[in-house]
Write a structure and sequence with these properties.
Layout lengths: L30 H10 L18 E5 L2 E4 H9 L8 H20 L8 H25 L7 H7 L3 E2 L1 H11 L17 E5 L2 E4 H5 L4 H9 L2 H28 L3 H20 L19 H10 L5 E13 L2 H12 L4 H8 L4 H4 L4 E3 L15 H10 L6 E5 L2 E16 L2 H31 L3 E2 L8
Length: about 450
């Protein structure tokens, strides 16, 4: 059985010299992330303090895994946390993330073979945010973000056609390991206001496998791959400028990239999301047959046989839109009309009408059988929930409502659903264990930060 971890002791603030606070921003994560964050910070009004008070005047916080400088904090407050006006909430969220980063590392995230790919995605996302801020500051907010405008402003000149042709001549034709016959740092791609752009610079924007594939692409496809790499290089170039302007610390920003990957990794590890979030084997818990049967008896209604289900649902892009959607429904606005302006595509406008869902029997949601949206709606119906509910997907949020259903007075037998019961019970236990494990990390990470007054305007 999984160990129970007690809640942490009371905590207090550290007093440090004052500092100006810059406006803050945010991308809101998964619903579970927010729930766990509330549990993680439950009852918390202050932050953990070291009796030695080792924080310096340039720091916002420190813990066993590192520190965060004020310059990095102010950059994050204008990029990722732009929509969060309260600096205390930003620090709370960052503390939660640091705990996630440490917990995921203990679970082997950094040695996982998919880690580098996910880390690159998160680094690209951060640098894109930094690039948009850099361009906004460069233009005074008077010009929208455009690669063509940026390349013109920074005198970027690249001939991708000739570069692709040069690569064609320089690639060996080893079918097992294609590679350039010369150093990519010696291959000039173009130039910009501050110097040359080499092929090595674009290579840094690719994973090794993407680079290898690019070498053997046909020329039109290779040119497209090089163009994408040039765009990522543009983000990197602008990112470096704004990071330097703020005096932010590269290592601190890269640790935040790791922490963002850690969130996805842990959601899958603790069975809090679909396998598509991060393809890692979840934690497993063994149960006796008696435990499984007791859970079956307690949740028998879930396995009732439904002949017909009437429901409506839609999918929206993010949690902010989902929240606004629910608020407007509560004000009396029409589900279908809201979907017309909020759904991610036309299909989920059509499903916003009340309609009959084709019957789908209760089935195992093991790692080899990723549930469809229709599966999820049927599962909501079997749970007896007729309230409008929101559920995280790999890309977006499902908003669903069960209208009515016709069922027969029978349920599936225990032996037919035993695997489903085991997964269901395992998920319930891991859902409880996740915040406990994060809380234990927090209790031992020695996190301390400056008082909120030092982060006000």
């Amino acid at each position: 059985m999984l160990e129970h971890i007690p809640s942490s002791p009371p905590i207090s603030w550290v007093k440090l010299p004052s500092s100006r606070f810059e406006p803050a921003c945010s991308s809101v994560g998964y619903i579970l992330h927010r729930v766990v964050l509330l549990l993680f910070l439950g009852g918390m009004t202050t932050a953990i303090v070291s009796a030695n008070n080792n924080l310096t005047s340039s720091m916002v916080y420190q813990f066993d895994g590192g520190q965060l400088s004020k310059s990095t904090f102010f950059l994050l407050s204008q990029t990722e946390f732009e929509k969060i006006p309260d600096p205390v909430k930003i620090v709370d969220t960052l503390e939660f993330r640091e705990a996630q980063g440490l917990l995921a590392t203990r679970h082997g995230l950094k040695t996982d073979p998919r880690y580098s790919w996910f880390l690159l995605r998160k680094r690209r996302g951060r640098m894109a945010n930094e690039a948009h801020l850099a361009w906004k500051r460069h233009t005074g907010g008077n010009q929208s973000f455009s690669y063509e405008a940026i390349w013109k402003a920074f005198a970027v000149q690249v001939d991708l056609t000739s570069v692709s042709a040069s690569i064609e001549k320089l690639v060996n034709r080893d079918p097992h390991l294609p590679r350039l016959t010369t150093d990519p740092g010696q291959v000039n791609v173009g130039h910009w206001a501050e110097g040359d752009i080499t092929l090595a610079m674009l290579k840094l924007e690719m994973l090794d496998e993407d680079w290898t594939r690019m070498l053997v692409f046909s020329e039109p496809v290779r040119q497209q791959a090089l163009l994408e790499a040039l765009k990522y290089w543009t983000h990197t170039m602008l990112s470096k400028k704004v990071v330097a302007d703020f005096g932010a610390v590269k290592e601190e920003l890269e640790r935040q990239d790791h922490n963002r990957v850690a969130e996805l990794f842990l959601l899958s590890r603790y069975r809090q999301g679909g396998k598509g979030i991060y393809p890692v084997d979840p934690l497993h818990v063994k149960f006796t047959r008696t435990q499984l049967f007791d859970h079956y008896m307690a949740t028998r209604s879930r396995f009732r046989q439904i002949l017909q289900l009437n429901a409506r649902y839609t999918v929206v892009k993010d949690w902010d839109i989902a929240t606004e959607f629910i608020e407007k429904l509560e004000e009396g606005q029409d589900f279908k009309k809201l979907a017309e302006s909020s759904a991610v595509n036309e299909k989920f406008i059509q499903t916003a009408d009340i309609h009959v869902l084709p019957p789908i029997p209760a089935k195992s949601t093991s790692s080899n059988a990723k549930p469809t949206i229709e599966d999820m709606v049927w599962e909501i119906a079997r749970s007896g929930d007729k309230e409008i509910s929101v559920h995280p997907l790999d890309n977006g949020y499902l908003i669903a409502q069960v209208i009515d259903m016709r069922e027969i007075d029978a349920v599936q037998q225990f032996q037919d659903v035993q695997s489903i019961i085991s997964l269901d019970l395992e998920k319930q236990l891991l859902t409880k264990q996740y915040p406990r494990d994060l809380q234990q990390i927090r209790r031992t990470m020695h996190f301390e930060h400056i008082p909120p007054a030092e982060l006000s305007r």
